[in-house]
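My current task is to audit a protein record that another person submitted. I need someone to confirm that the token line plausibly describes how this chain folds. Take the sequence as given and treat only the tokens as open to question. This is what I was given:
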Amino acid sequence: MPSLSRRGALRSASVAAALSLSGVLAACSTGSTSDTSTGTAATEPSTAASDAFPVTVEHAYGETTVESEPTRVATVGWGDQDTVLSLGVVPVGSVEITWGGNENGSTPWFDEKLAELGGEEPARYSDADGVPIEEIAQTQPDLIIATATGITEAEYAKLSKLAPTVAFPDAPWTTSWQEGLSLIGQALGRTEEAAEVKAATEESIAAAREAYPQLEGKSFIFGPISTADTSKIDYYTPEDNRPRILTELGMVNAPVIERLSKPGQFYGTISAERATDLESDVYITYGVKKSDLATFQDDPLLGRIPGIASGHVLMSLDQTASLGMSGPSPLSVPYAMEEFVPALAKAVDGTPTVG
């Protein structure tokens, strides 16, 4: 089961629309060039609106002014690299995706878009020990994007010494994909493209909502539990991106989660002794192996969670699909709609699902 840190938790018609838009974006993409000093890709000359710069972006740590179109963009958050790429800009450096990622520290949706744009893989740096300031510096960025993060003010100050830095807009770890897209679109001078990407992404959600009408109005709890410690139950609050995108599919947070959740927090924990309090139409959790579901069902406390007891439960083993839901971005959302939502619908219908 993934950790509840963002780093750990953190990964049709709509696709046709997205692909159509991709063609438009490819035409205005900055593409990439070889940089012998760093061995990473560097973006080519601007195709942003000619009058877009200078631009000032507001965020949680103040205002950041980007004087001219950036050509070397480094990203810090797991979803930031997707959003930058969705706007046709190939980042020179990005965080290594270690949960739900592939052998290259990337994701299928990022790789697909990168190939479409003809870009080079960005330098990958690990955030296992915090924000990798030195590694980011080595990419020689002229803009740093950190909207999908929880960077501290001290980390922001260090990053800002390297290049103009755009942090999250409000509370750490609570940036929605729409907020991130808006901020990054401003910073890159691509607000019109951001609006088009937003529309295409929303269309993918709408298509899934139409395809799975049984989700409409159903209450849910997204609550990580573990066979390693059955004494507690974690849950994601309405401010987390997982519940957010589920509500975009027409679902609703369980009333008990609404009552338990505190402003500015993306998750909480209760004792397993309170398992029966967690009333919802469906219960969503993670697992490591298929037999974990039976372990949860047989546990004298966890097995009393109403969704588990009634069979309306989804235990996700697919880290990549789960990452698409937990760290939704314009590139990951269509993937999650195709790979995660069908299993969710099956669980809503009353079939205990391991997917």
In short: The radius of gyration is 20 Å. The CA atoms of residues 242 and 326 lie 5 Å apart. Confidence is low (pLDDT under 50) at residues 1-46. The first helix runs from residue 6 to 9.
